[in-house]
Specification:
alpha/beta; Rossmann fold; six-stranded mixed β-sheet; 8 helices; 30% helix; ATP binding; transport; AAA+_ATPase; ABC_transporter-like_CS; Metal_Ion_Import_ABC
Amino acid sequence: MTQTSPIPLRVDHLSVGYRGETALEDATFSARAGRVLGIVGPNGAGKSTLLRAALGLIPHDEGHVEFFGAPLRYARQRVGYMPQAKQLDFDFPMNVTDLVRMGTFGHHRPWQRLRPEQHQHVAAALQLTGIESLAQRQIGELSGGQRQRALLARTIAGNPDLILLDEPFAGVDMQSESVIFDALRKLCEQGATVILVHHDLTSVRQHCHDVLLLNKRVIAFGSIATTLTRRNLEATYRHTILPYGTC
């Protein structure tokens, strides 16, 4: 009998509060391997909070999180996280290659030389995100789309099996969005699982397999075909959705 692989991410009844206010309430879902899961909801819905609490970057009040069937400390090298670009300092004097190499630090000490396979992962990440020609450019000189591609390259340079992306398309042009989605598709074809926070319902429908509709609590979770419905969107955004092709 074939052994079932552990679920990449399982979140059970996760709740987070700030200063007496509920930011996330009783969130439960699991991400399936080799698929893209889009997290969708209005501003302030707890989307970034969900990712950060799952990763232990902020405390949670209740709940349990497992990565590949275990606490994060046992699977940390299998998980890549791309925070929002606004949280990072692009004035720091480093070039794109230096930034991408940082994605390998979970597998060695920063002062140690990269092993040959790690150099290969860095080169592959630059190629997959289409920024090989920018390898020596200072990160402060990058456009918005180039920054997001560089951050994605850093995230995947560690060769993670689970990739968590917080608004990876913020401030990007259409070309960069296409390159990023194509890269994520190829990563999934290689067996990786992707979870991303996104706002564009059209591209969520086109490029994601599953969707989590969130507004401080999980409104609906499942496949795009069965979950991204007008009724669920109205419950998520708390107003009537006008007729539109993606609904």
